[in-house]
Amino acid sequence: MQLDEAKSKFIEGWGTLGSAWGVSRTMAQVHALLLVSPNALSTEDIMEQLQISRGNVNMNVRALMDWGIVRKELRPGERREFFSAEKDIHRVATLILQERRKRELEPIMRVLGEISQVEPSPTSTPEETEAFTKMIASVQSFANFANSAASTLIKADENWFLSTFMKLMRPG
Amino acid sequence: MQLDEAKSKFIEGWGTLGSAWGVSRTMAQVHALLLVSPNALSTEDIMEQLQISRGNVNMNVRALMDWGIVRKELRPGERREFFSAEKDIHRVATLILQERRKRELEPIMRVLGEISQVEPSPTSTPEETEAFTKMIASVQSFANFANSAASTLIKADENWFLSTFMKLMRPG
DNA sequence: ATATTCTTTCAATTATTATTGAAAGTTCAG
DNA sequence: CTGAACTTTCAATAATAATTGAAAGAATAT
């Protein structure tokens, strides 16, 4: 297989994976393209390679920057912007984990907290209420577990990142 | 808060969560409804409570059964079918993990395996090819890690999960 | 100040995905 | 077998989400 074909397959596969995880196909493809590009790409490069519009590139690139997995790169003497992806896949996973925890886990935990304070009422039997609170409590305990697991992974990765960074700073 | 309101909020919240994870809102809501219902529900019950059509209920309930998190319940002397959700949320998580590994991780690993065999060619420099294979190798190694982590979690029994893993995850 | 080059926005359009509902299929009692 | 009760399918429709492209906005050079 040749390089160009391999790159296309990766972009396609990454796009499919993304859509299974609630990320739009194009956003995942822009990410994949930046991952397989050794150099930072301009908006026009991305437009051309993925055959999508300028506005589309702009929106998706900014969303990827929001996730923290793509950076803007400015070159001296160049007006236009270039974009490059975080290549350390471990760090990519951590950043995504971090964002998803904030965007999804936290809201559902808030809802669970609210509804766990259900009160007995004339329209429901105590048994019904108890069954419900028991169910919610188990979901809550799982959410807590997921939350602390995520914290630990994020912290572990930060340590790892910091240590490699420190090594870089103090060569020898 | 009263029970009915609490149930509605849970169904709504679960639906929102689902759509962030690539599960259709309605499918997640059917699942939530079954989670908060002490007894198994018929197709008509679900239609009425979620205000959706018969065909819609049928499709989503079958998808949930494919995931292994909803069961059909037959009652002697009753022609129609009743449905109930797996209430052990840990088991729900395991079953979902299992399915997602099969449906998503395996395909991307296959693609990665194929494209890692990229050959040098006239249209690309050895440096480009090397950068690409290096990137792919790191994604592969991460996918392998994710895959074996999933395996371990799936295989692990509940006791191990709760005691050992919780301790591991607890920041010290 | 004006032109130039690039970025951003957003209403309109297009594409994708979910939903409906009626018809066909199934099962079973009589 | 026939009819009643229920389930499944699927083409049509509706709802949602992504995409475009042109116009407005920014930044810099002349």
From TrEMBL, chains A, B:
Keywords: DNA-binding, Transcription, Transcription regulation
Transcription found in the keyword field: yes
Domain HTH marR-type: residue ranges: 22-81
Presence of keyword tRNA processing: no
Pfam families: MarR_2
SUPFAM superfamilies tied to this protein: Winged helix' DNA-binding domain
UniProt record similarity statement: Belongs to the GbsR family.
Protein name stated in the entry: HTH-type transcriptional regulator
